[in-house]
């Protein structure tokens, strides 16, 4: 406990880190405040609070903004959807591939395209959101349906753009990882209420069952932490060089390849795509039986169709995001430039192929474990756990919270190490993961 208090004092003694933490808290406070500002023309007292199925999961990510019909009703999700589309284009379209390789100028152009696409996606999703979730008796008669839908589209789009701006500011002036931080704070805001509700539903007779649920949840969290931190270390030997009277190199280091190199992004990407069929189909459920079936099927996270599609998307996005975030050719080239080689493997193309094979072998089990944890809430719901608490028992909510918390700890750890303070983690795992990365 004494070490923990000393570490907290060290954190707030670093001016830059202290300012970034305060900025992050202020931006997150603004985001939470916006989730309670209701759309113009909506009577909040007449909202049905539809938080079942896919809407309940979306409401969890947005911290209640969805069910509150707030100006942040769609939150940051349209931006994530737009990011998915742009990243897919960088793989499939040569023009976007060229922009990705153009360095800072290309990155700025891709960011501008992502922002523009975010506006289009938000406008489209806002129509389904307004027509499917806000009852007619909650709308002020002064507006009329057409005027209300038009004004809500503009307001929701502005809210999403503002959320996107907040995320960028958290990344720039805060601790970092702003977009994921916004999602995490929305999830955490619902966690205390879900635990209290689950405990109340069990009463004294079910106290043992509730304690057992917490114990199982603890081990699930530990498993997710292990998945996030697990690495496969590839040994790298550097050749000795004699420069003047000194000998350089000749030491062995390691390339730490994470089992889950994609982090939480496959879950976020897959979940964003899973929202689209339910929202769009619900908007047209009265005109088409097929739309009604799709809306009911993909609007229920506990259905086998939803779980199967969700699992496939997670596995696909895990390999996709790993492929664009870890480049075996670049790693092999950097090793060759620095006179490094993997024992028993020739430098160049064979090294690149070897690293790619290792990445494929460790990514496959990581992707399946990621998918298993993601669909765990659907399984525990069938065992009697309340739907609200099951969303935190595993799945996307838990993965996002663990991933973002670990990333935040790593950011704080780097500031402490730069100022020569003792780190947060006694084992120094965060430090090892950073020191062993080979750069050009």
From TrEMBL:
Subunit annotation:
Component of the Sec protein translocase complex. Heterotrimer consisting of SecY, SecE and SecG subunits. The heterotrimers can form oligomers, although 1 heterotrimer is thought to be able to translocate proteins. Interacts with the ribosome. Interacts with SecDF, and other proteins may be involved. Interacts with SecA.
Indicate the family of this protein.
Answer: Belongs to the SecY/SEC61-alpha family.
Q: Which InterPro entries match?
A: SecY (IPR026593), SecY/SEC61-alpha (IPR002208), SecY_CS (IPR030659), SecY_dom_sf (IPR023201)
Could you tell me what this protein is called?
Protein translocase subunit SecY
Function statement = The central subunit of the protein translocation channel SecYEG. Consists of two halves formed by TMs 1-5 and 6-10. These two domains form a lateral gate at the front which open onto the bilayer between TMs 2 and 7, and are clamped together by SecE at the back. The channel is closed by both a pore ring composed of hydrophobic SecY resides and a short helix (helix 2A) on the extracellular side of the membrane which forms a plug. The plug probably moves laterally to allow the channel to open. The ring and the pore may move independently.
Localisation: Cell membrane; Membrane
What is one process in the GO biological process aspect for this record?
protein targeting
Q: Per UniProt, which keywords does this protein have?
A: Cell membrane, Membrane, Protein transport, Translocation, Transmembrane, Transmembrane helix, Transport
Q: Which GO terms describe its cellular component?
A: plasma membrane
Q: Pfam families from the entry?
A: SecY
| Bilayer topology | Multi-pass membrane protein
Q: Where are the transmembrane segments?
A: 21-39, 76-96, 116-134, 146-167, 179-196, 208-227, 262-284, 304-326, 362-383, 389-409
